[in-house]
Amino acid sequence: VRFDVRAGVYLATTTDAVSGEVDTLQRIVSVPGELRSHVRELGLLQAGDQLDLHQAGDDVLSLRVLPGLDEPLGCLVQATAGYAHLCCEQTAAKILSATAMYLSANNAGERAQAEQIIVAGVAREEKMHVPGRGFRMYPDMGDHISDHYSRLAVRYLWKLHQLQQVPILSAALLRAIERGLSLADDAGQAHQLQRVPASIGGPEDAYTLACEGRRAQVHGWLESALELSGGEPSLRAPQSAVHDRVTLSYAAAALLALGEVTSGLRVANLVTRQLNAEGRLYSTIDSVAAIALMVQLQRSGVADQGGVVLVNGERMSVAEAAGHSDRIESLSVHSGVCLVELLAIHTERWDRFVGGPTIRIGFRDPQGQQKTRFVQGDRATLRVELQEGYEDGDLLHVCLPAALSWLKGGGRVQRFTLDFEGRPTLEVPVLVTGEIPGPQHFAVCMRNMFEEERASNPGLLSIQGS
């Protein structure tokens, strides 16, 4: 049974005519380009902090006390290791995440998954390596080196050395570790990088030197980067959203490494409250920084459950609160640190990106001619062009109308994301799989994987039947 609907929440009810048994199914129909998801924010509450579910906002659905960091760290690592796009930086980020996954694995299956990601990642990274110069963004981009992203890839690949301390590794994994470190050393020499820097050139350097105990040097950087007096911590010189989360993550990790837990948790909260529906941050760059922060939180023992809280007015230990079965309406921390998960609804609207870089969208028939009307069974190509040109990290998000499908892997896909991979134009083959009795709407959106602010949406588009 097919019928047209507007955006909204729909409940379908079916009743068995013989038994009278009833079954129901609820679905949300959204406007194309308006995406709703559940996010699980992580709150790090200290003595004196409190949360009230009724005052947290209409989008917050529930509160839950976590027994530790294993769950959110596991989600963050898994989501980053499973990232779908594969430039030199993203491939190295997947390798770094899989390294953390391997070190924290609870069973052979998790270790096998991590090993597979590392081996495949190093093999791809090798295709992007230009000896003596660094890493190109993608394997087919000639000898053009992206200095910024190549440097990040080096930093990530150096984390493979942590696996060298594991006593028993497979031969394939050992080869991948050795090759990955060799690639990083070669590119690092080209970029004049050191594993332990002599001075602080950025947030990660500050955290590295904090772990080395260089307190005075790190404090100087922290004072120049952060404003900690007064209310909520802030950056003295904010830049872009991704860059700011990176700075906050490494700054929080540095404070924790120096033993300044109260300030470190205040800064960390600004990052952990931004985890998305997948359990990571916007890009691989800030997600990698968040992994470093989460690992340092574990090392610092902030989640040892030694605190005391009030749950719905009842006094109990943090450990007891983590096993609390009733709905938590209010939470107040009396002592210690309490990890809280806030389940909330997040809505992303592509129409807020109207006015960004210009993109041209159109359909072509098999002969390459413009196509504006369709009938069931037609094949066509959706062509999207970046009018001002490509920038590293540009992606295309698509929500096709009901009658169109991208045939991919034997299935009909209507919502997907593609990487421009250095090209200003993308072409997607589509098939008309349904009737078009009237106008059907769809949406496309260009977003950048590294710059959250670089985005463009031409507004709601439509197709017509012949």
Task: Outline the structure in words.
With 466 residues, the protein is α+β, with helices and mostly antiparallel strands. It has helices at residues 70-81, 88-104, 108-128, 147-157, 171-190, 203-211, 215-225, 241-257, 261-272, 284-299, 318-322; strands spanning 8-15, 22-29, 34-46, 50-52, 60-65, 129-130, 134-135, 226-227, 234-235, 308-311, 314-317, 330-335, 337-349, 359-364, 370-371, 373-374, 379-386, 394-399, 404-408, 411-413, 415-419, 425-432, 440-448, 455-456, 461-465. The protein has eleven helices and 25 strands. It has a six-stranded antiparallel β-sheet with strand order 15-14-17-22-19-20, with no helix packed on it. Strands 16, 18, 21, 23, 24 and 25 form a six-stranded mixed β-sheet that branches. Strands 4-12-10-11 form a four-stranded antiparallel β-sheet. The protein is globular. The mean pLDDT is 93.
How far apart the termini lie comes to 23 Å
**Arithmetic mean of pLDDT:** 93
Number of helices: 11
Helix/strand/pairing category: alpha+beta
Largest sheet: 6 strands, antiparallel
Radius of gyration: 25 Å
Shape: globular
Share in helix: 25-40%
